Amino acid sequence: MTRARHSGNPPIFARILCFVVPLLFFLSVTASANQSSEIIKMDSLLNKNLQELVEVEFSLATGSPKQLKAAPSAATVITAEDIERLGVTTLDEALETVPGLHVIPSATNVFTSIWSIRGIYSQLNPQVLLLIDGQPMRSNTNGNKPYGLRIPASIISRIEILRGPGSAVHGADAFAGTINVITKSSSDIAGTRGGVRVGSFDSQSYWAEHGSSYGEWEIAAGAEYQKSRGDQGRVIERDALGSGSPSMAPGPLDTHYEELTSHLSVVRNGFASRLFYNEVFESGHGPGVSQTLTGDGTSKGRQLLGSLSYKSIDILPDFTASATLSGSYLLAKNWFRFFPQAYRNMVGVPEGEDLNGGLELTGDYHGISHHQLRVAGGMNYYTTDTSQRKNFGPGVPEQFGPLVDISNTPYVYLEGHDRTLLYAALQDEWNFTEGWELTAGVRLDDYSDFGSAINPRLALVWNMTPELTTKLLYGRAFRPPTFGEQHFQNNPATLGNTNLDPETLDSLELVFDYRPVNTVRLGLNVFAYRIKGMIDYVADPQPATTKTAQNARDQEGYGGELEADWKVTEILRLRGNFAYQNSVDKATDHAVPDTPGMKLYADVDWAFLPRWSAAAQYLWIGDRHRAVGDLRADIGNYDLVNLTVRRKEILKHWDISLAVRNLFDRSALEPSDPKVPGDYPLEGRSFWTELRFTF
User: Can you name the CATH fold of 12-694?
Assistant: First the structure.
C-alpha cells in the first residue's frame, strides 16, 4: 500500500512555523547572545558582511573573473558556505535553491534528474551544459549528464549557474543554461577533513579530503562514497501493465544507488592539473525503462575528466595567454529488463564508451584604453563506441531466450561515430564611459559532420548608482543533434533521425541588482526567448511503440525572477526568490507541459546559541500542466520544508549536524509518463545525522 502522507495545503501555522518560531526565539535570546563573542567568532557564513557575500567573482559569463553584480548575465553563485549552512548533500539539492531552475526526475532517462530552466527542457535534458572545473560532462550519445551521476557536496568549492544562452562563450549545449561545478582547492580545504553521514532509507556517506602547500606545489584531493536503498514508500499504484498480475504494481520506484566520487588538483607556477572521477556502481531505474516495475534493472558508469592548463601573465606587454589540454572518458553500462520476467523475459544490455579530447588557446589583451579584448580558439574531438547484448529484435535467433552479443553488427542500437569541432571566439568588454560597460562577443563553431553555427551576444551593464546596477542582455544559442538523436536504431524505445536540424534560441533579458545598504540585496530579472526546432522524441504512429527524434516544436516563453537577501543581524539571515515563466508550444498554442510555471523558495539561517545554528528551507512548486492529448488533471502543487541544525565543536575538531527533509511528510508528485497515471512520488519525511572532523 502507498504510505499515507499529508496532501493539499498544510495549515497556515505549519507553513510559517519554521520562520516565525525562530524569529520569536531569536528575540528572546538576542540580549544574551549578543554578549557572547563566541557567536561572533563562529566559523559561519553569517559572520560575513552581505556585501562580501554578493561581491564574489563569477567567470562563467565571460571566461574571466568578474564581480557577480557586474557580470553580463543572470547569474547565481552557490558557495561551500551556502552548502554547509543549508545542509545540502548533492548538486541537485543545491540547484533547487536557484530561481527559475527546477529539478525533475526524468520519465525516460532511467529516472536521472533533469534540470528545467525557465520552462526549457526535454526528456533527456541536453539543453543544460554541465561543466566540472570548466570541462564538459556530457554523453556524446544523448547530450545529457551520465546516468545516475550524483555529485556530492563535499567536493564542491562553488557552483556557478548562468541562466540563459551561453553559446557565445561555451559553444554548443550552453542553451537554456550552464552549470559549472568548481571542486575544492588546497586553500579551500587547508588541512585534513572528513566525515560520515547516515540516515533514512539505509543511506550512508563517507568522505575525506586534504589540501596543503608543499613548497611551490598546491595540492588538493577529496573523495566521497555514498549509498542508499531508496525510499520504499515511493509507491506507484499502476504502471504500463496496470495494477496486479502480470504487473508488479502497486510497488515502489527503484531509486537505490551506490557510487564513489573523487577529485585531485595540483597547481604550481602557472600550471594547473585537475582530475575528476566518478564511479556509479549501481543506480536504479525508477519506474523501469518501459514504465513497468520489474524488480531489477540497473545502470553503471564511469566518468573521468582531466585537464592540464598553463597561464602566463604578461607574456607580452598587456597580454595574458593561457592554454588548456583536456580529455574525458565516459563509460555507460545498462541492464534493461523491459517487463517482469514472469510476463516477458525481454532484456537488453547496451554499453557505450565516449573518448574525447581538446585543446583551447586563449588570450586577453588590455592595452587599449577602456577595453579588454579576449580571443579564444580550439579543437575538440569526440568519439563514441558501443557494444550490446540482448534477447529480442533483429539479429536474435530465439526471441526472449538467451542473450546474444550483436556488437559490431548492423543490429546494434548505435554504431560507433566521431566528430571534430573547430571553434574561434572574440569578445570585447568596453567601459566606454563611467558606469557603463558593453560586452560584445561572437563565436563560430564548425562541426565535421554537421556544419557550422555563429552565435553572438551583447550585454550592456549600467551602474546607475552605487546601489543599483541594470543589465540589458541579448544572446543566441544552438544545440546540434547528438549521435543518438541522429543514429539510434533497432531500439524498442527511441529511434534516431538523420534529417534533424539544430535547435536555436534567441533571448532578451533585463536585470536589476539593487543593494540599498550593505545588509540587503534585491534582484529582478525579466526575460523573453524564442526557440526554433526543439529536438525531442515523439511517439510514432500506432501500433509502433517507439519514439523518433524530431524537431518537435518551436517554443516561446517569457517571465521574471525576483530575489531577496537580508542579513537581519549578526546571527540571522533571510533569503528567498520567486520565479514565474510562461512557455508555449507554438504548434499547439498550449503551455509547455510538466515544468512549473511558478516556483517559490525561501530559507532562514540563524545562529541561535554559541556554536549552534539552524537553517530552514521552504520550497513551493506550482502551475504545472499536462501535454496535449494527456487527459489527466493538471499536476497538483506541492510544498516542502527542510530543517538542519548544526553544532560546532562538540569536541575539539568535531562538528555535528542533524537534518530532517520533507518535515511535514508532504505528498509531493512530479509528472510521470502517462503509462504511470498517478505520477511519481518524491521522498517522504527523512532524517540524517552527520559527524565531521577538521584537522
Answer: Maltoporin; Chain A (2.40.170)
